[in-house]
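Re: weekly structure request thread

Next one in the queue (295 aa):
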Amino acid sequence: MLVPLAPVLAETSPERELEQIQNIYRAITSYHTLLQGEGVTKEMVDAALYDVEHYVEEIDGRYATDKLFVEDRRILGEITKTVAKAHFQAALLHARGVDLEGSIVQYEKVLDLLGYDPADWDVDIERSGRPGLLSGVSEVVFQMASPREAVEDLKHFWSAGVVTRFRVREFSPGQLEGMTLERIGGRNDAFSQASFELAQERFAERVKAGLEEFRVVLPPGRYRATAKGTGRAAGVLPAAGRRSRPHRAQPQYLLLRFRQRGGALHAGTLSQRFAGQEPGGVAVWNLQGEGAAEL
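Done, posted below.
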C-alpha cells in the first residue's frame, strides 16, 4: 500500500522538502525485507515493484520542482544525492524481483543524476534488509555496503540476462498483432522462467504498440519469433555475464530475415556478427519483412 505524501508547495521550506524526500527514500528501502523474505509469491513481488516504481515517480516529480524552487545549494545537493540513492535502491529491488530490465533502467537514472560511475560514489547504500530480533517492535536491520559492492550485486543479477534489442520493420498490422516470442531452449530454473515470462509480456506489448525498435532483457537460451502468415525463425542469444555495465555494452547482431514465398512471408536464415571486441551482452534481432534493407 502506497503512503500518501504531501504535494510539493512553493512555500515549503527547503529543510522540510529534504525531509519529505528522505521519507520517500526510507519507504523504498523498506521493501528489501519483503523481497528477501520467505514464502514470497509472484503477486507480492509484482505489488512491491509497482509500489517502488510509483515512489520513484513521486520522488522524480518532487525533484523536478525542487530544482526550480530550492535555492540553497547545499540542501539541493542533499536532495539530489537522496534521489540518486532512491533509484539505486530501485535498481537493487527490481533485480531481486527478477525484473532485470527495470533494474537497468533505474541504474541508468543513477548514472544520469551523478554524471559518473556509481561505483566511485562515496556514500553508504542499504544492500539488504531483514526484520529485527526484538519482539513486539517493528524493527528492520539493514546491511550497509559501498556502492561498488552494490554494483557487483547488480552485475551478478544482470549476468542472468541479455539486453536484446529488437527491430521490427515492414510487417503489416495483422502480422504484428500475431507476432509472438517463444523460448525453446535454455536453463529451466525458476529465475530464468520468471524472467522470460516478464520479457515475453513486454515483447508482445511493444510489438502490438507498433514500436519499430525496443529492448527486452531475456535469459540466455534459444528463442524463435513468429509472425502471423510467416514461418518461424529461431536464434541463440549469446551467453551472458561478459559485460561491465549495460549502458556501455557493444551490440552483437543477430539478423533474422524474412523472405516472400507464394504470397506469404517465411523465415529465412539467422546469421551472427560482432560489432566490436569490447565487453558486450546486447543482442539485436532484426525482424524484417519483404523489401527491408539489409544491414
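The radius of gyration is 22 Å. The longest strand covers residues 251-261.
Next request, please.
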